[in-house]
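cron nightly-structures :: item 1 of 1
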Amino acid sequence: MHDLFHWLARRSLRTLHVWGGWAGWLAYALSPSYRRRLKANTALAGLSGADRRASIAEAGRLVFELPHLWLRPAEQPITDPLRWEGAELIEQQLGRPGGLLLLTPHMGSFEMAGQAVAERFGARQPVTVLYRPARQSWLREMEETARARPGMATAPANLAGVRQMIRALRRGETVGLLPDQVPPDGQGVWAPFFGKPAYTMTLAARLAQQTGAAVLGVWCERLPRGAGYVVRVSPLSTPLPQPGPDDAALQLAAATAINRSMEALILAHPGQYLWGYHRYKRPRSVAVA
């Protein structure tokens, strides 16, 4: 697999996206559980047939572009056409006390989003991104190497990683994470996501509450036919609630607000969301709401 990754990395982005589109449909055809989950999730969100079909191909492109993104030399700038919409929102927060928290759903090229933010802003304000290490040792080693880039650090999804992100924000730096990632037992609340209860992390809101960080939404659109990417930055459509005496109620309200903001981002370009992600799974020992 290591050699295959390196071989794929030498192919053009357009070629990888063509092959990835085919692979997305192949995975959809061969996996009944994946097919059922994707159909159920897109039905909840009220997607059109065209958007559902687009998401199947985009999921494959997400996988096939990884060698291209991961194996680019750390010192080599992004050479794919890349443009920004809303970069001034990040500019306005640079150097602000409390740092900046960037929230990205499982949408578009979230690997490229992190690299793009680090390349453009990392020299002035370093970026720390939360990630869940792969189970396979060869893949874990590759992704750790790929994400070690100038201006960007990585934090594992554990207690040490949480402390690392809090320290980064208190230094006035930037932290990025995927708030629609299902958290471990005891680290989430059941909050609505497209009208259905989903176990939702409290980490994103707690980081903002503990540090006073500004919060923005960001995602990276994958353009057709390997034409590059667009990084889109926007305020949260639903602001986080103000702290109150009832912490449990606060965390539920905050998780609900973040889910609504992620829904707004997703529905603007639903064909690029990873609808096959097991968003509604129940972690062990967690009671269903």
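cron nightly-structures :: done
The mean pLDDT is 92.
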